């Protein structure tokens, strides 16, 4: 049985996973890879290898710097590590049409970047 | 584009001032403002490596210092007098900063459009 | 020309000390709230003497410090009201609140 102790949550393998109102995980450590497709579906995104690459990137960014990157920083950081073909907003928007920083962090189980109010 | 100087003067973890200031700095930088950071007094202690903020009951807002370059925050000054008083040498610091005499800090305060102290 | 605004007691907080480290000739100081107590210490008075110093009248009256201020002779303290504080803020190129 899943408790409904949280105001916003979803069920995953029989556990209640707490989220905020907009569906971002409350606890970064609750995230597991298998959760990503479920979170992606709430954004109408079907994950491909290209998506996964960005999701792992933002997840690692967060683990290293303890903050979710806003779009400008994400573009620059991806550019530095994967080159200009991927480090540009056009490419990232193709993968995450509503907003790469906003959507990739959500799917990666991270807090929403500060700039996305 | 405004030149914003953000001065930090409080010790790590005793207050949330520096955390608020860092949030403000990153947000300002995301909005393409020209941000410079100035660490003085016991706030220079934020620049020491191997901190574990969580052990002091604080969110870790120091790890992001390594990402200042990605945020295009290029000017980071640390007050020489404060470092000297605390017996800290440049090679002990976790990130690249410019060690600044008081006059250099005064000058950067004069040239900023806005100065905020945290 | 910067107006440096100090709000905290120099006995509890380093705001005044740090401000004085970076202040430059031609800058001014305004002391509000507990910061006005600095005027009772000869050492602080000597350190702030080179600068134009403002205090808010109500802060001084609230603490019964008018007679103490009257006995300060080595430096001029400008006792102002809120309106004049605003005027001074506008007259300076910026305000730094320490």
UniProtKB/TrEMBL annotation, chain B:
<comment type="similarity">
    <text>Belongs to the DsrF/TusC family.</text>
</comment>
<dbReference type="InterPro" id="IPR027396">
    <property type="entry name" value="DsrEFH-like"/>
</dbReference>
<dbReference type="InterPro" id="IPR003787">
    <property type="entry name" value="Sulphur_relay_DsrE/F-like"/>
</dbReference>
<protein>
    <submittedName>
        <fullName>Sulfurtransferase complex subunit TusC</fullName>
    </submittedName>
</protein>
<dbReference type="InterPro" id="IPR017462">
    <property type="entry name" value="Sulphur_relay_TusC/DsrF"/>
</dbReference>
<dbReference type="Pfam" id="PF02635">
    <property type="entry name" value="DsrE"/>
</dbReference>
Automatic annotation (TrEMBL), chain C:
<dbReference type="Pfam" id="PF04077">
    <property type="entry name" value="DsrH"/>
</dbReference>
<dbReference type="InterPro" id="IPR007215">
    <property type="entry name" value="Sulphur_relay_TusB/DsrH"/>
</dbReference>
<dbReference type="InterPro" id="IPR027396">
    <property type="entry name" value="DsrEFH-like"/>
</dbReference>
<protein>
    <submittedName>
        <fullName>Sulfurtransferase complex subunit TusB</fullName>
    </submittedName>
</protein>
């Amino acid at each position: 049985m899943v408790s409904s102790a949280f105001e916003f949550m979803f069920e995953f393998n029989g556990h209640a996973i707490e989220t905020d109102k907009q569906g971002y995980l409350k606890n970064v450590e609750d995230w597991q890879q298998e959760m990503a497709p479920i979170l992606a579906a709430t954004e109408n995104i079907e994950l491909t290898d290209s998506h996964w690459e960005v999701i792992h990137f933002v997840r690692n960014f967060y683990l290293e710097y303890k903050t979710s990157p806003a779009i400008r920083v994400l573009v620059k950081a991806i550019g530095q590590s994967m080159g200009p073909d991927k480090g540009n907003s056009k490419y990232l928007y193709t993968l995450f049409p509503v907003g790469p920083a906003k959507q990739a962090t959500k799917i990666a189980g991270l807090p929403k970047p500060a700039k996305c109010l | 584009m405004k030149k914003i100087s953000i001065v930090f003067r409080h010790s790590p973890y005793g207050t949330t001032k520096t955390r608020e200031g860092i949030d403000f700095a990153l947000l300002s930088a995301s909005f393409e403002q020209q941000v410079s950071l100035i660490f003085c007094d016991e706030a220079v202690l934020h620049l020491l490596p191997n901190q574990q903020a969580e052990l002091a009951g604080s969110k870790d807002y120091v790890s992001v210092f390594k990402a200042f370059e990605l945020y295009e925050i290029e000017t980071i000054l640390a007050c020489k007098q404060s470092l000297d008083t605390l017996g800290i040498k440049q090679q002990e610091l976790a990130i690249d900063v410019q060690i600044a005499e008081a006059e250099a800090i005064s000058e950067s305060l004069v040239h900023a459009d806005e100065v905020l102290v945290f | 020309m910067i107006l440096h605004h100090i709000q905290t007691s120099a006995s509890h907080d380093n705001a005044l000390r740090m401000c004085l480290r970076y202040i430059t000739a031609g800058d001014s100081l305004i002391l509000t709230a507990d910061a006005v107590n600095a005027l009772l210490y000869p050492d602080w008075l000597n350190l702030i003497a080179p600068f134009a110093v403002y205090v808010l009248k109500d802060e001084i009256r609230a603490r019964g410090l008018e007679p103490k201020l009257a006995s300060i002779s080595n430096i001029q303290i400008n006792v102002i009201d809120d309106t004049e504080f605003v005027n001074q803020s506008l007259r300076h190129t910026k305000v730094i609140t320490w």
